[in-house]
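Model it.
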Amino acid sequence: MFLRSLFRPPATEMPADAAAGPGAVRWRPLRRVLIWLRWFGLRALALMAVLVAIYALVNPPTTWTIVAASRSDPISTRDWVDIGDIAPVMRRSVVAAEDANFCLHWGFDMSEIRKVVASGSSRGASTITQQTAKNVFLWQGRSWPRKLLETIYTPLIEALWSKQRILEVYLNVAEFGPGIFGIGAAAREFYGVTPAQLTARQAARLAAVLPAPKSRDPNRASARSRAIADGAATIARDGRADCL
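Modeled.
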């Protein structure tokens, strides 16, 4: 009954003011368009919320990004890794690299956004939650429709998932190299270990490749990986890793 009411089209009866004169008749098509747009928008939002709620409990089997990548590279075997089976230093490293205030914000890091706007920089300020929304539900690339959907999905994810669930899903769908998706595949392919066995150095190097997984080598130290290792230690001390 609920689903039937959800998808039932809006009533299109003639407005009560149809007999009020030619002015009311002239606005009738616009009013009908607005009614249909509102009906579609509310149903789309409800479906998005249902999908987010499902993935709060069910692990996403694949993503559009993985499907697209499979056309150019073989996809390494992916085994889902629960958050408790990922080394704490790996969790801290990816947060230090991608979103140091992950435990403190509600999906959008407004302080970082203000810094970007004030500096006039073209760099992004996407949080891990925003990246999870993009990686799980949407597609890669820059476009206003995708950004709009990401902006809707992000607070839904924050409302319906725990911080640990967000990080777990992110680490299981993130790309760490050509055809290598998820922390389980990355730990196995690059270091021959399980995610629980990753060292601080390995975790920092894996986190360092995330902005450009097709061109960066997690077997090579870099200034970025050293900075991430320091950042992971810092957020462990100052409490910004408490939710992990």
